[in-house]
C-alpha cells in the first residue's frame, strides 16, 4: 500500500554506504520511520530534503508488521534554511523537534499537534518574533493536547483565586500565597495573567500580548516545571537544557 502524507523531519541516521533512515512526525500517520534508499548518493533529491525541521510531502510503501517502511519519493513544502540562519531560531527549532520526537509515540496520529508544530516552526522564520513566548505557547498547547490542562484560576489546595503563586512539586499544580509554607513564591500576578491570556490567544496574535521581561522568565519556568511533571519523556529532552543555557544565558 502506498501512503501519502505531509511530515516534519525529526532526525536522520546513515544506513549502509548509501541509505538514510529518517524519523518523521507526519500528519496522517503520526511518528514514522522510513528507509530512504540511495539518499547518500550525491545526486539523490533526498539528500537536501531529509534535514531536520524540513516539512515535506511524501509517499511511502507501507507493509503491516514492518517497523521501518520504505520511502518512495518526497518534495518540499517548506525548507528550514531561514530557521538555521540564526542561532536562536535554530536552537528553538531543534528543541521543538526533539520534544516531538521524545513525546510522540510511534503511529500516534494527532493532526492538531502536527498543525501546532508546523505553525510554530514557521513562526521561527520571522526574525522579529519573540521566540520565548512562542515556545511557551507551544509547550502549553502541547500539554493541553496531551491531556494536561493546568489550573490557572484557582489554588489547587484551597481553591482561592490565584494572584501570585508557587508551583507545588507534589501535585504538579499552582498553589496560592496563603498555602505556601516553605520556599518562595515563583510566579507574580502578571505571570498568572499572561498564562491565562496565553490559553485564549492564537499563535498569530502572540505579538499583541503585553508583559514584562520578568513575566517571560517566570512563564518559561512554569512551563518547565509543569511539562516535566506531567509529560512523559520531557525530562529526556537534551536540547531544552542547552536552549536554557545558551539562549537565556
Ligand atoms: Zn491556597
Query: In terms of per-residue confidence, which ranges show pLDDT below 50 for 5 or more consecutive residues?
Result: none
- Percentage of β-strand residues: 15-25%
- The second-level CATH architecture of the largest domain is Up-down Bundle
Q: What is the strand tally?
A: 7
Lateral arrangement of strands in the main beta sheet: 1-2-3-5-4
CATH class of the largest domain, please? Mainly Alpha
Global shape? elongated
Q: What is the CATH homology-level superfamily of the largest domain?
A: Recombination protein O, C-terminal domain
The whole-number mean of residue pLDDT values reads 94
- Give the distinct bound molecules: zinc ion
The total tally of domains equals: 2
User: Which structural category fits the helices and strands?
Assistant: alpha+beta
Helix content: 25-40%
Number of helices: 8
Radius of gyration: 20 Å
| Largest beta-sheet details | 5 strands, mixed, barrel
Distance between the termini: 49 Å
- Order of helices and strands, N to C? EEEHEEHHHHEEHHH
CATH fold topology of the largest domain = de novo design (two linked rop proteins)
Amino acid at each position: 500500500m502506498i501512503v501519502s502524507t505531509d511530515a516534519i523531519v525529526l532526525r536522520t541516521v546513515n544506513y549502509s554506504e548509501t541509505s538514510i533512515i529518517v524519523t518523521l512526525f507526519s500528519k496522517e500517520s503520526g511518528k514514522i520511520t522510513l528507509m530512504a534508499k540511495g539518499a547518500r548518493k550525491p545526486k539523490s533529491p533526498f539528500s537536501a530534503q531529509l534535514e531536520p525541521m524540513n516539512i515535506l510531502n511524501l509517499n511511502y510503501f507501507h507493509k503491516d508488521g514492518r517497523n521501518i517502511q520504505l520511502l518512495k519519493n518526497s518534495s518540499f513544502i517548506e525548507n528550514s534554511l531561514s530557521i538555521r540562519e540564526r542561532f536562536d531560531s535554530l536552537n528553538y527549532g531543534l528543541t521543538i523537534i526533539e520534544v516531538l520526537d521524545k513525546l510522540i509515540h510511534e503511529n500516534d496520529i494527532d493532526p492538531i499537534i502536527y498543525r501546532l508544530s508546523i505553525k510554530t516552526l514557521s513562526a521561527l522564520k520571522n526574525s522579529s518574533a519573540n521566540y520565548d513566548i512562542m515556545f511557551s505557547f507551544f509547550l502549553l498547547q502541547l500539554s493541553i493536547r496531551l491531556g494536561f490542562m493546568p489550573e490557572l484560576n484557582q489554588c489547587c489546595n484551597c481553591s482561592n483565586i490565584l494572584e501570585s503563586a508557587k508551583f507545588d512539586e507534589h501535585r504538579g499544580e499552582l498553589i496560592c500565597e496563603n498555602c505556601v509554607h516553605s520556599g518562595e513564591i515563583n510566579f507574580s500576578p502578571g505571570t498568572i495573567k499572561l498564562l491565562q491570556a496565553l490559553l485564549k490567544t492564537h499563535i498569530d496574535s502572540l505579538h499583541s500580548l503585553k508583559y514584562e521581561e520578568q513575566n517571560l522568565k517566570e512563564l518559561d519556568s512554569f512551563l518547565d516545571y509543569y511539562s516535566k511533571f506531567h509529560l512523559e519523556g520531557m525530562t529526556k529532552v537534551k536540547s531544552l537544557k542547552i536552549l536554557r543555557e545558551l539562549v537565556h544565558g
